[in-house]
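Thanks for the sequence, V.! I ran Endonuclease-reverse transcriptase right away. Repeating your input here for the record:
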Amino acid sequence: MVISKKSSTSKCNLVSKGEKNKQVTKLKYLGYLITSDDRCTSEVSKRIAMATDTFQRNISITTTIRVIRTYEWSVLLYGSECSTISKEIEKKKTVETWFIRRMMRNIMDIEKTNEVVLKEANLEQSLIKTIRQRDLQFLGHIFRHKGLERSAITGKIEGKRSRGRKRITFIDNLMS
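Predicted structure:
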């Protein structure tokens, strides 16, 4: 698979043991979906759906908080180190409040804002903070080694930049 911003990707001819490998647009590697355009929107929505499916409502509040942080967050945060926080990933904030509303049994209470629900539960939105913390740990891991990963993250790879608006890079994501 060739990962590129262009809609028409170039063909990659790989031959292994005399057999030609097939060109694909999507690749599932260690449970994380990698697409040829390097967007993570489908992966984020898939992770949100998986986490909401595992949520149960008939557990006490303190136990539910622990369950959310262990099971649902592990599903939501898998592979989050490799993606940039953009508008699509901000959906994870809404999923976090969705869990808390279900936990507090305030499912469709329109009168209450997310901030009020969080105050009632004595919680704060910490999912995005956790993602940022994991990003910094991942960046430290990459910068301790010298290699292709370090060159890719710092943006020191030769070649021409494609047309159009520049995508959010990993470093830009950490600075914002």
